[in-house]
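Weekly puzzle thread! Below is a chain. First person to post its structure in token form gets bragging rights.
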Amino acid sequence: MEQVVIAGGGPVGLWLASELRLQGIEVTVLESRTEPDPHSRATTVHPRTLELLTSRGLVEPFLAEGVRIPGGHFAALPPRLDFSRLDTPYPFTLALPQVRTEELLAEHLRSTGARLLRGHRVTGLDQGDDAVTVHVHGPDGPYRLRTAYLVGCDGTRSTVREAAGIGFPGTPANAWAWMADAVLDAPPRWRSVANEQGTVMVFPLPGGVHRVVGNDTATVHTKPGPLTFEQLRAKVREITGTDFGMREAGWISTFGNASRQADRYRHGRVLVAGDAAHSHFPAGGPGLNVGMQDAANLGWKLARTITGAAPDGLLDSYHAERHPVGVELLRSTHAQSGLMTDHSRTTLALRGLLAELITGVHEFSDELAGRAAGLATAYPADPADGAHPLTGSRAPDLRPAGPADGTGLFTLLRPGRHVLLDLTGRAGAGFAALAHATSPGVTVHSAPLATSRPAWRGVTAALVRPDGHLAWLTEEQHLPALVTAAHAAVTATTARPAAAVPLR
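Winning reply:
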């Protein structure tokens, strides 16, 4: 019997499989396509995703091939969100076609020993108390796999979600837009235009092409048919006054603003992640990124459940933490959809006001930037329970003082284990020995922070989860108490709902 079967070999399924293999779990990925789709809807890699890749030692190929675009945007407003003010080593958006992201992740996955089977399509399932039987159609015909857990990473039309009886409520599309990958003789570095004729956004991709995204007043509320190159060029010229020297487009597509979310991310031994869990207007390109964060949250929890290191209740926290993140995702993209597809004077005035606030009010701009960058998501704990205010938030790349060996928190997270930080630097070997005896498999690092951080003032120890979120922090000074509390945090099985909170 398989330990985990994943339906879908896109970025989310590949990342989840890699996370499980890091924990020693046997994984089979079933992908219906025989080759990656050469046409990439997703092209945006956010700072938080780059941090996740760094925490597994995989970021360099992405940085080498992607195009760095300073900051991010909200609803294609002209002023860019300033990521340089955020606490991240990656203050930019990375433009990289999804096809290349998939190839890089698949290359890494194969090195881990996981099975990636292309041309194998999941057609149904039967779920029992102790296993799931997966119905598959492969190159040689239909067959079945028996697995302890099945995860649907198979997109908005997820067969796994439907076969498991997981609802997908939401709203149908009532506005449509178009996109193209075009060769431009007079390209802008980044350009956004919105007026009474429509909206156009242009940004660079690797290989000398540009992604052109937009909608026009005449057709925005009518489901479009196929769009020719000449029609695309005429629409761009009408809205912006120029076609940027557009002379060819290798791919032209359309999309709508339908918004849907799975009503539960777990049903027994079946779980869903990525587009199978949430579908939305791609404003700011968050889909791939939020999906990979779904996988990061689920991977270590599923592994600990399978190995018996945690009871089944830990797996319930996947829905408790990630479903509210999906709610916030749909709320944000729905709002941006309205700002990008309504070309009335009222909405244009609202866009102008928001642009002024982004430019002139740092607190407002920073909040939008933190959300757009993927850094503001937290799984908050109740201060009434004695939890530190930072508990549940994403941990930055903390740099302990000491030899200049480049060992930051993201490096310490590479084995995929919890990381226990002694920030006093005084506990040393005794702290590490006691911590290992109490919670085996935890990486322990003892050193004070190299630079002062106001939000961390007084913190003596912190426990970081494998997905980079803070499980526990304390200002306690007594060594045994530190380790006892850390052990309780490692073995905790409950989680409170997530929310996007202001950056601290």
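Puzzle host: Confirmed. Bonus trivia for everyone else. The mean pLDDT is 90.
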